[in-house]
Structures are given as C-alpha cells and as structure tokens.
TrEMBL record:
Keyword terms, alphabetized: Coiled coil
Protein name, per record: Uncharacterized protein
Coiled coil (residue ranges): 4-108, 218-332
Amino acid sequence: MATIRQVELEKSHLKQSCTELEGEVNMLRDKLSSVHSELIKTQENLEQFRSERDNEDSSRDRMKLELKNLRETHSVLAEESTQREAQIETLQQRISENQTKIRELSSLVSERDEIVEKLRQTRVLEKTSFVEPSLDRIRSVQLVEQLKDLRQQLMEYKATSMTSKTERAHLQELVNHLQGELAARVDELRQSKLEIDRMRRQHESDLETTQSSLHEKLQQMEDKWNDANTKVKQLEAELEVCKINGIPYLNSESKLEEHTALQTAVEALEREKKNLWNLLDETRNERNSLREQLNRLRESFEEEVEKHKKTKVALESKLDQKAEELAQLLQNHTSAVKSDGYSQDSCKANREPIEQAAIKLMSDSDEWTGSEELTRTWRVNASADWAMIQ
C-alpha cells in the first residue's frame, strides 16, 4: 500500500510538473510567435535596406559615368593643348619670318638712301663741275630707274607684310579663342570636382547612417538569437528530464516539434545575421573603392592644372623675348636712319609699318603678360628717337 501511495504521489507530482511544463510551452509558443513577428519586421527592414542599396548602386553608377566623362574631358583637353602648342610654334615661325622681312626692308631702305645720296651728290657735281651733261643725264636716268625698282620692291614688301599681319591676327584670334575654351574647360573641371566632393560627402554620410543602422539591427538579432538559444537549451533539458521521468510520448513529441521549430527559427536568424554582416562588408569595400577613385581623379586634375600653368609661363617668356628683339631691331633701324639724311616725309612713310608691327606685337605681349609699363616705356623711347630724327 505504501508503495502504491508513493507511486500515486509521484504520479501526481509528475502530472503537476507536466502541467507546469505545458504552461511554459504555451509561454514559449507566445514568445516564438513574437519572435516570428519580429523576424517578419526584420525581413521588411531588410527589404527596405535592399531598396536603399539599389538606390546607392544607381548613384554609384552615375558617379562612374561622371568619372568616365571627366576622363574623356581630360583627354580632349590634352589634345587641344597639343594643338595649341603646335599653333604657337607656327606663330613663332611666322614672327621670325616677319623679322627677316623687316631686315630685308631695312637693307632696301639703306640702299635707297645710298642712291638718294648719290643723286644729291650728282646734282651738286652737276652744278659745280665741267663734265659733259650727257653723262650726268645718263647716270641720273639710271639712278631714277633704280629708285623706281626699289619703290616697286618696297610696295611688294608692304603687300606681303599686310598679308602676314592678317595671318598673324587670325592666328592670334585663334589662340585667344583656344585660351577661352581652355579657361571654360578648367572652370568646368573645377565645378565637377566640387560636385564630386559634395556627392562623396553625401555618400559617406549615407554609408555611415546605413552602417550604424546595420550595427543596431545586428545587435538586436544577436540578443534575440541568444534568448532563443537559451530557451532551446532549457527545452532540451526539460525534454531530457521528461524522458527520464517517463512523460507520455505525446507531450514529448509536441515539445520536440516545438523545439525543432524554435531551432529552425534560430538558424534562420543566424543566416540573416550572416547576410547582414556580408552586406556591411560589401558597403565598406564600396566606400573604400569610391575614395580611391576620387583621389586618383583629384591627382589627375592637379597634374593637368600644373601643366597648363607651365605652358602659359613658357609662352609669356617667349612673347617677351620676341617683343624685346623687335624693339632692338627698331632701335637699330632708327640709328641707321639718324646716320642718313633723307627728308621727314620719307622717314615717316618708312617708319610707320615697322612701328605699327612693333606696337601690335607689344600689345599682344601685354595681353599675355600684363606688362603695360614696358609698352609705355618703349613707346616713349621710340617717339623720342623719331623726334630726334625729325
């Protein structure tokens, strides 16, 4: 009897423990449903994050397209810079040709002055000597013909000089146009650089916000995973106790099913956690790649700006040198004119083309270098020299 009572007492205790376990199982079911609802919310958040990631991919594609356009602009600018250097070399060659023609004109002027001097001496001799007039007339006719030839050559040279001036003006206009285009392209590159910096800052802020939200979601999922893992361990322990104490098979089977479902939910949460970690690593790698591309683009832009600065400085120095050479040539010509003794009208007629060419070249040099004081000093000196000649 005592054994039966003891067995009945143990049976009642087991029933009571089974009732408590059933209550705990019901509580676990409620918690599992709440975990399932939270998992659904997490999936919705993941879908939202995927849509945000798609938007970031589209913005990254736009940035890549802009980088490609900037590279094409850089290549076009390099080609235009090469063409401009070739045109500058052509312009310098034409300037040297004009200087050669000016030297030829100076030699022609000196020859004409010699002929005029000979005519003057002939007229003096005509008045003072007793040579036969026929010889003097022949010499005078020859000298007049030579003078006509020289005038014809001078007219041809003036026409050639006007043609060269027109070509030089056209080349100068082309150089100015290329300079304007170059300045516009440089401004466009600066604006593109500012826009890329702004997009980089915005993208970095978006990435930081996304990273912080991902960390929060991962932390929440880790907490849920730890809670679910603890519950699974508790259920496994209770199941072992039930098996040892002989709980009916139906209750053990239902708990086993609940344990399996909970284990499946825990594995799903763990997979979702791994996916989020992989997505976070991909986002970090993309951010580092964008930073490297931006740094390469910035270095290329700085190299292009430095190259254009060097080209401009070299061009300014060459133009200054050509202006000094032309001023020296004009000074030498005025010195030669001082040594001769021809009239004021012919002096003005001969100096005007050279003076206009020199002033045009100096004004072009002022446009490049901004040396207005040099131009004014040269003009004052030239005016003083011509005043002394007159």
